[in-house]
């Protein structure tokens, strides 16, 4: 089967229209940053190396529980999903990994899938298990929980599923398993909290025992939904306790939407890194709850503050391992690929601005209790238009100056519709 592949020539030809303007903007910004003592080449290098995984479920129209509106030409196979990630990576040079969700995206031919991914310079990031839905022909139901269930038979089924997911990921070169549970209760008195938590801990220990030596277990938390009275892993403290109960290879995973409104996520991130227990991120944005909107579309300053703590932690907390980065968004009214392009840009933008913060200067101001100066240092970095830097980093690696513009100029969506048909539906949706 032939798949659409954006060549460097396609992108270079489209870049020519904007190259002169980009060079002028970059030179102006680079001169300004250099005059302020920044090492522009070092920043470019860090931006060029920074890669964010795209989840296999984000490439179709996810929608909401009220409706689903396709943008047509959706990827109906795993091969087509990897093709879509390849398009994103070709344009941005920052989407060099895919994170599979099992059982939605189980390879039928591992060799062929790996060869396809290799040809597009894509690696396989964390694999994600699914015990928040009942699967076809499953013997047991997760209606009242999975790893936390009062029934040993249900827990055993959920444990085995996670072990199966590890096996699938191991064949592809993944190095971590992400576990998110919908387990919880919707009414007071429905669950014994201690029993549910202990069952979950014991189940996770069994899964942890099945990890390959060089793997990590990432434990995700969420305060509500689909259960609305309690969730077993409701916050970062619960996740951290469970991770500590498993061992050194278990970590907390932070999803930006999995917090109560106005939670101080940057503080959570900072403390987890101090303790060496931050495993990774799921990026999205929200106004009210777990809205799964385009990264940076609602709270760009909050995202920047998170990255400021991440940059500090990556420099000062060697006890914390390399982090897994992934976008976790749901696209209902946008072209999913355009949405992901915007998210990748927003993540890179927040990272670039955080790299402009003089951490030593900020630390000195903090120690001197110079509150005004602390604010000025952060906001001066945030107010800097770093988009020419991002474009330069992409150009350096053969990407597009303006990914969305190139995506449209090269008629990518129209081509995908011609290849796949109009009414295809992505797997898992």
Note down, in words, how this protein is organized.
Helix 6 links the parallel strand 4 and strand 5. Helix 3 crosses helix 14 and helix 6 packs parallel to helix 7. The mean pLDDT is 96. The chain has a single domain, classed as Divalent-metal-dependent TIM barrel enzymes (TIM Barrel, Alpha-Beta Barrel), CATH 3.20.20.150. It starts with 7 loop residues before the first helix and ends in a 9-residue tail after the last helix. Helices cover 47% and strands 9% of the residues. The strands form 3 sheets. It has a 6-stranded parallel beta sheet with strand order 4-5-7-9-10-11. The protein has a 3-stranded parallel beta sheet with strand order 1-2-3, with helices on one face. It has a two-stranded antiparallel ribbon with strand order 6-8. By secondary structure, the protein is α/β, with parallel strands linked by helices.
Keywords, please?
429 residues, alpha/beta, three-stranded parallel beta sheet
What does this entry show, briefly?
This protein is of the alpha/beta class.
Count all strands and give the number. 11
| Low-pLDDT residue intervals, each spanning 5 or more residues | none
CATH fold annotation = TIM Barrel
Give the name of the CATH superfamily: Divalent-metal-dependent TIM barrel enzymes
Number of domains: 1
Class from helix and strand fractions: alpha/beta
What share of the residues lie within helices?
A: 40-55%
Round the Cα radius of gyration to an integer and report it: 22 Å
Task: Please work out how many helical segments DSSP would assign.
Answer: 16
Straight-line distance between termini: 23 Å
Q: What is the highest CATH level, the class?
A: Alpha Beta
Strand content: 5-15%
CATH architecture: Alpha-Beta Barrel
Q: What number is the mean pLDDT?
A: 96
Shape: globular
User: What pattern of helices and strands is seen along the backbone?
Assistant: HHHEHEHEEHEEHEEHEHEHEHHHHHH
Oligomeric category: single chain
Task: Strand order, main sheet: write it out.
Answer: 4-5-7-9-10-11
The largest sheet, given as strand count, sense and whether it forms a barrel, is:
6 strands, parallel
């Amino acid at each position: 089967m032939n798949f659409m592949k954006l060549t460097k020539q396609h992108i270079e030809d489209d870049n020519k229209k904007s190259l002169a303007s980009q060079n002028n903007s970059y030179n102006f910004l680079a001169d300004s940053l250099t005059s302020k003592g920044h090492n522009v080449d070092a920043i470019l290098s860090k931006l060029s190396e920074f890669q964010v995984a795209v989840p296999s479920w984000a490439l179709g129209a996810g929608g909401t529980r009220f409706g689903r509106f396709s943008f047509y030409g959706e990827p109906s196979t795993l091969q087509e999903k990897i093709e879509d990630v390849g398009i994103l990576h070709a344009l941005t040079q920052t989407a060099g990994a895919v994170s599979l969700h099992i059982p939605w995206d189980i390879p039928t031919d591992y060799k062929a899938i790996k060869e396809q991914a290799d040809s597009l310079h894509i690696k396989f990031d964390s694999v994600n298990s699914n015990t928040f839905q009942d699967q076809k022909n499953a013997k047991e139901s997760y209606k009242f929980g999975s790893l936390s269930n009062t029934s040993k038979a249900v827990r055993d089924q959920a444990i085995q599923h996670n072990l199966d997911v590890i096996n699938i990921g191991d064949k592809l070169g993944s190095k971590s398993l992400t576990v998110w549970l919908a387990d919880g209760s919707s009414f007071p008195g429905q669950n014994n909290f201690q029993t549910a938590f202990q069952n979950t801990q014991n189940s996770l220990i069994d899964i942890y025992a099945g990890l390959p030596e060089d793997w990590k277990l990432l434990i995700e938390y969420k305060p509500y939904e689909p259960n609305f009275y309690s969730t077993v892993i409701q916050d970062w403290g619960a996740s951290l306790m469970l991770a500590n109960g498993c061992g050194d290879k278990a970590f907390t995973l932070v999803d930006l939407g999995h917090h109560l409104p106005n939670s101080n996520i940057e503080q959570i991130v900072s403390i987890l890194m101090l303790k060496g227990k931050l495993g990774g991120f799921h990026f999205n944005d929200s106004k009210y709850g777990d809205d799964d909107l385009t990264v940076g579309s609602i709270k760009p300053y909050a995202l920047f503050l998170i990255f400021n703590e991440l940059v500090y932690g990556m420099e000062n907390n060697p006890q914390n391992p390399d982090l897994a980065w992934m976008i976790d968004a749901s696209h209902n009214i946008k072209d999913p690929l355009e949405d992901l392009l915007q998210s990748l840009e927003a993540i890179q933008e927040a990272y670039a601005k955080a790299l402009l913060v003089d951490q030593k200067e900020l630390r000195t101001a903090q120690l001197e209790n110079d509150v005004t100066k602390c604010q000025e240092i952060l906001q001066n970095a945030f107010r800097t238009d770093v988009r020419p830097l991002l474009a330069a980093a992409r150009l350096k690696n053969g990407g597009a100056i303006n990914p969305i513009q190139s995506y449209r100029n090269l008629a990518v969506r129209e081509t995908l519709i011609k290849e796949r048909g109009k009414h295809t539906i992505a797997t898992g949706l």
